[in-house]
Specification:
Elements lengths: L1 E5 L7 H17 L3 E4 L6 H9 L2 E4 L11 E3 L6 H9 L4 E3 L3 H15 L3 E5 L5 H7 L6 E4 L2 H5 L9 E5 L5 H14 L13 H14 L4 E5 L5 H13 L3 E4 L15 E6 L5 H11 L5 E5 L19
Parallel strand pairs: 1-11, 1-12, 2-3, 2-4, 4-5, 6-7, 6-8, 9-10, 9-11
């Protein structure tokens, strides 16, 4: 008998649910095709499902026909992308997560006050690129504590920091402490910009790891928050695997394993979690319980264009 303990909370957060429903509502109201710049959220299964229903995912706006309905992804976009959309006359629905938009606003406010910005985040991530592109001013990207030591701002006494929303709370706290130690005048929001859903899912994995032999995280490899969940399992010393779906399961992982903790990143649908449980039944009988955890009831408003859909 394999005991499976489900993390609570897990899977979709309010920002992801909103972004996916924005595309669904747009398809219903305007009809396909609806063009989406970048993946609406970082999950292959979600993207493929929307693609079959008429969503077309593109890397850049020049791939979108003139006048076609356009959606910006949950990760946010740079100001230049917004400008290009206006120049081309594209009707745009913005699915940027409100918590990402909050970071944009903070960055602009700090820059407007004459501060250089330190952005704690991962180079190349869609959210980071969008955030940097939303701020008129100097933005320094730091990814590790070590990066802080090599930071050379032009105005070291006029710094502010902001953070990517999907990072590890522990890693971010360490980087912020290093920034404060090196630049005592720096200002910023501590770890409050790590979104509530990221924090809740990370804490659930920490709790889960205390009572299981292995951690399975359902999520895509390009999902920052899913990778952080796996890393927490690794750090605690439990075998941890990041899997797209049940097809990734390997029988050899479960030799000597009696209890499995199962969670999902914020962009992974619950259907994939249930599919993994079914996949585990191919190896052994399965008993499923759910960890007591935080019940999330956050809901975000929809853009005005779709509020009545």
């Amino acid at each position: 008998m394999l005991k499976v303990v489900l993390a609570q909370p897990r899977g979709f957060c309010a920002g992801v649910e909103r972004a996916i429903e924005i595309v669904e509502r747009a398809l219903k109201k305007f009809g396909p095709p609806i063009y989406v710049r970048h993946e609406i959220v970082h999950n292959r299964h979600v993207v493929e499902d929307l693609r079959t229903r008429g969503a077309v995912f593109v890397d850049e706006l020049d791939e979108i026909p003139p006048g076609a309905m356009t959606v910006f992804s949950a990760h946010g976009v740079a100001k230049r992308v917004e400008e290009v959309a206006r120049e081309r006359g594209l009707p745009v629905i913005d699915a940027t997560c409100p918590l990402v938009a909050k970071v944009h606003n903070e960055g602009r406010r700090y820059a407007g006050a004459g501060r250089e910005i330190v952005l704690v985040g991962h180079a190349g991530h869609a959210e980071v690129e969008g955030t940097i592109g939303q701020i008129d001013g100097v933005v320094h990207l730091v990814q590790t504590v070590e990066d802080v030591a090599t930071l050379h701002p032009g105005t070291p006494d006029r710094l502010a920091y902001i953070t990517q929303t999907t990072l590890s709370v522990d890693d971010t706290r360490g980087i912020i402490n290093a920034l404060k130690a090196r630049f005592p005048e720096i200002v910023g929001p501590d770890v409050r910009d790590i979104c509530y859903a990221t924090q809740n899912r990370q804490q659930a994995v920490r709790d889960l790891a205390q009572m299981v032999d292995m951690i399975l995280v359902v999520g895509s490899r390009n999902s920052s928050n899913s990778n952080r969940l796996k890393e927490i399992g690794d750090e605690i010393g439990k075998p941890a695997y990041l899997i797209d779906d049940a097809e990734a399961l390997r029988a050899e992982w479960f030799h000597g394993i009696a209890t499995v903790g199962l969670t999902a990143g914020a962009s992974a649908p619950e259907t994939l979690v249930q599919g993994v449980i079914d996949g585990l039944r191919k190896f052994d009988a399965v008993e499923v319980t759910t960890l007591a955890g935080v019940a999330e009831n956050v809901r975000f408003r929809f853009p005005a264009e779709l509020a009545d859909t």
